[in-house]
Design a protein that fits this description.
13 strands, alpha+beta, two-stranded parallel sheet, 7 helices, about 290 residues
């Protein structure tokens, strides 16, 4: 059945989250990231990994599937939707002891050759309404038509571009354990059976369970913070990229840093077979 363009402009109800040190530490541990900023409870406060907002966004994404216009899809059609691109803006780090709310708004829909492209804005706010993080997420519903005229009432902001790539990219291998998707699922509290249930993955046409796109991105961010930002996650201001090839487990992916501007690192992540798992990646940062 067709996707309905009346979804554009609709928002979910805000979903509340209590962020404690245990969740922050679990997310970092699920990435095998032992940065003291995430685990050092002897400090004033532990802060969350820069990609932690995806944990808060997942329940809101699930909630958006109950909005009028989404319910025109059959379960099989909904299962073919993929997370295609991510653009996270971090206004300030998230710390333990916060009550946050996250809300999703569909800002655009467009018929494209593979199906329908859906842009969703995900806003995470503090208890007093301060915007803490904002993500522009692109999803593609494959093999689905669009009922109505595609439109966008709020286009995403332009992405940074690499001015001049390095002659020789810096290559950083990242091992991915056989149980990485299971561990990430529980630590992030992001459950999608194609990442942990082999039967479901095979029925969906996948070769096996696959690693979450956000886990692949988070692994890359961890290495970028350690290698280029002196281990200071609070400097990260923006993270983005396009999700491409599947990451199977166990394997070794390669973070390839392509260049750097005054405030942005540009990268891609390659699978064990050399295909881009993440393309057009970037991480923007502020001063020390």
């Amino acid at each position: 059945m067709p996707y309905d363009a009346t979804l554009v402009g609709q928002s979910t109800k805000p979903i509340h989250h209590e962020v404690d040190a245990r969740w922050i530490m679990s997310y970092a541990a699920g990435l095998n990231d032992c940065n003291p900023a995430y685990l050092g409870t002897d400090r004033a406060k532990v802060v969350a990994h820069p990609l932690f907002p995806v944990c808060l966004e997942w329940p809101t994404i699930l909630s958006s599937r109950h909005m009028p216009g989404y319910d025109t899809l059959t379960p099989a059609e909904a299962a073919r939707s993929v997370h295609a691109a991510h653009d996270l803006h971090i206004l300030r780090p998230i710390a333990e002891g916060e009550t946050l709310t996250t809300q999703a708004t569909v800002t655009g829909m467009e018929a494209i050759k593979p199906g329908v492209a859906v842009t969703t804005r995900l806003d995470t706010r503090s208890a007093d309404g301060e915007l803490v993080a904002r993500t522009w997420q692109l999803g593609i519903a494959r093999g689905v038509a669009l009922n109505g005229t595609g439109r966008a009432f709020e286009p995403p902001p332009p992405r940074p571009s690499l001015p001049s790539p390095w002659r020789q990219p810096q290559r950083l291998p990242i091992p991915v354990a056989a149980n990485a998707a299971h561990v990430y699922t529980e630590c992030a509290r992001i459950w999608n059976p194609i990442h942990t249930d082999r039967r479901v993955a095979l029925e969906a046409g996948l070769p096996d369970i696959i690693l979450h796109g956000t886990a692949t991105l988070a692994l890359a961010v961890s290495r970028l913070v350690d290698e280029f930002l002196d281990g200071e996650p609070g400097r990260v201001r923006r993270i983005g990229g396009h999700f491409r090839a599947m990451v199977l487990m166990p394997s070794t992916i390669v973070l390839e840093v392509l260049g750097r501007s005054a405030d942005t690192l540009f990268f891609q992540v390659l699978t064990a077979s050399g295909e881009p798992a993440i393309s057009q990646g970037f991480l923007s940062y502020g001063g020390a």
